# Entry
Amino acid sequence: MSKLLILAEHANGKLNPATAKCVSCAVKIGGDVHIAVFSDSGQAVAEQAARLAGVSKVLNIEHADFTDPLAAMIAPELAALASGYSHLLAPSSMYGKDVLPRAAALLGVNQVSDIMSVNDARSFTRPVYAGNAIIEVSVPEDMLVAATVRTASWAAAEEGNSAEIEQLAAQSERPSHTRFVELQSEGGDGPDLQTASVVVSGGRALGSAENFELIYQLAKKLKAGVGASRAAVDAGYVPNDMQVGQTGKIISPELYFAFGISGAIQHITGIKDAGTIVAVNKDADAPIFELADIGLVGDLFQIIPELEQALD
Amino acid sequence: MKVLVFIKRVVDYNVRVKVRPDGSGVDTDGVKMSINPFDEIALEEALRMREAGQADEVIVVSAGTSDCQQQLRTGLAMGADRAIQIDTDKPLQPLTAARAFQALVEQQQPGVVLLGKQAIDDDNNQTGQMLAALWGRPQATNAAKIELSGDTARVTREVDAGLEVLDIDLPAVITTDLRLNTPRFVKLPDIMKAKKKPLDVVALDGLVSDAGNDLKIGNWSPPPQRGKGIMVDDVAGLVTELKSRGLL
Ligand SMILES: Cc1cc2nc3c(=O)[nH]c(=O)nc-3n(C[C@H](O)[C@H](O)[C@H](O)COP(=O)(O)OP(=O)(O)OC[C@H]3O[C@@H](n4cnc5c(N)ncnc54)[C@H](O)[C@@H]3O)c2cc1C
# Structure
């Protein structure tokens, strides 16, 4: 039977919802599902992880070296824990992508990136070419499966469980060559882009950081998360963590609004899993309309205020 | 200090790739090929390090058939001092690539290794991290800013929560994100000059046995298509439509 270990992602004492999505993928693979929590004081996070349905055990590994999410510290520890497991999973967030390949290489195994679906315990599908193709990947019989999970493809595991929590001491040798300095986070007050059920995004057409207020206001009214195209981020209208797409966040809200976004494949790949896509663009030939469920040709500077009024 | 930059030849990012009807891959016949955009940014950063007097040699490396010499020549035209082709006719999975790169890194002893955070063909985002692990050195992925000082670097990384700043000891592996810089355009005289710059070819087996390429890639398929959408005429139409779908 498979025995799976999931790398928990967390910050400020809160388990990131990406972890619950990894659990769903692990449950689909089938087997004994464990979650590893690395931190300086992880009890609260471990308790949240223990509530996830399908999890049989949570490993809580506390050490001052795990205060910050450093791949250089966590990968050797994860690799040391891996013996006895058939699968090592992490969310394909920036964190999972940083840590897991380092651990996989220490273990001398390949990694499968971005699992979309599970064929069997060793065979998966994943997107390549910015989501323009889907491939089947299988891992040889005798090899540990190291994989990141494309969280937008998976629903979060339910809560209501109370798995055992085991305290473990750190056992790996960890380097001193990598030091955390700080996290610069603007952390808006709206819903999180990656978990919001409604997301409102703006593109280059917004023209300035001041104009982007229009997007924030509409989002507030819709209780929505706020996203952006790369062009809007590059132009400095919004911070980088709002970028949606191939090299930003891959999201799957129920409802997605794209205002003044042309619909480049690199953007599209981040929103393909959205329930309903609404596009507003003044160019009737913009590629975004090929994908949108509901399209409206027009000037966003007129349409957003009108829409806000209509919502009152 | 030497800077080693790994670049990959990929289908140009403007091309809309199509899966072959027989599910054996994507159509690359006659398709425009380029340096992976993230790797181009890595190379640009290396050149800027040399121009700032922080590096004295920039070596650009690519693994592939002789076709990738085209991208290496572009790298030389951008300003790299010399190029190395790791000759292989198999597409390398990240662990194999990382093993080959590590062997080259041990030979060349660079102070900084730069490569893109991911290749836009396989979208794996693994090779830099794997190389750093095998080499036993620091990694700083998704770099948006790199400041070198002596034998350390301060790297600002793009992470999901914003920007994370790390201090790392050199030598180290740094993978590059889009906002690190804007690569220069290559000028015609540079292309001429690049023809005279050294380009060495080493065989993949000379560096590493190809063990590591062991994921089996099966069928390729096009992504599921979304249903066809509708157009509405105005905001009232939009609101009605959203309400009828239970979304408002
Ligand atoms: C390697 C690589 C990775 C990338 N990764 C990403 C990624 O992760 N995410 C991403 O988004 N992009 C990514 N890109 C960039 C992508 O190719 C596009 O350049 C980008 O998405 C364009 O952003 P945009 O749609 O806002 O801008 P544009 O393409 O300039 O589109 C602006 C749109 O606004 C419309 N418009 C203008 N004025 C108005 C108005 N008043 N009202 C209504 N509409 C208006 C225009 O008709 C146009 O369609 C990547 C590119 C590369 C090379």
Notes: Residues A 203-205, 229-232, 243-248, 260-262, 264, 266-267, 270, 280-283, 286, 299-301; B 13, 37, 120, 178 surround flavin-adenine dinucleotide (CB under 6 Å). Residues 27 and 54 of chain A are 6 Å apart (CA to CA).
